[in-house]
Specification:
- By secondary structure, the chain is an all-alpha fold.
- Helix content is 34%, strand content 0%.
- It has helices spanning 11-28, 45-49.
- The protein is rod-shaped, with a radius of gyration of 27 Å.
Length: 68
Amino acid sequence: MIKVVRGNPTPEELAAALAVVQARAAASGTAAPGPAAPRPAWSDPSRVAAHRLPQPGPSAWGRTYWPS
């Protein structure tokens, strides 16, 4: 929210000031947040659970890791 503390700006002056503030916010990345980005597939736990259980063997322990 922007509040005029001093003076009596015309509607055109106020619109110009708000346009500058919005342009700076958009350039710095602090504009209103949009929808959340989708979660990457590599971190989805169901990706690991969808596969078969590892076969016994010397490297089986490495395939039992569950990402958090």
